[in-house]
What we know:
Layout: E1 3-7, E2 10-12, E3 18-25, E4 34-39, E5 45-51, E6 59-60, E7 68-73, E8 78-83, E9 92-98, E10 101-102, E11 106-110
Parallel strand pairs: 2-11
Antiparallel strand pairs: 1-3, 3-8, 4-5, 4-9, 5-6, 7-8, 9-10, 9-11
Amino acid sequence: QVQLVESGGGLVQPGGSLRLSCAASGFAFSTYAMRWYRQAPGEEREFVATIDTGGREPFYSDSVKGRFTISRDDAKNTVDLQMNSLKPEDTAVYYCVAMNYWGKGTLVTVSS
């Protein structure tokens, strides 16, 4: 069965960095685009970034463009999200998504 397991969340100060990782299994990883979404407390889920097969055409929401970088390793079946210059408004649970499958999420808290 499809499994998506996120890791790397935690508490970071404003201006800091975190790197999230998603380990995927149960499907032909290299043949699917991968996405990251997030959900802040009391808010709806929001698109963050996507990356196509072969690492092509990464695309970002306006709110994270220039600060976040999505990447994938098809040999390891992983997709990462490098987050720099973090802001308090980046606080959210971050989810890895493939097709219509979602991981359980990892919490990122940006606070001093």
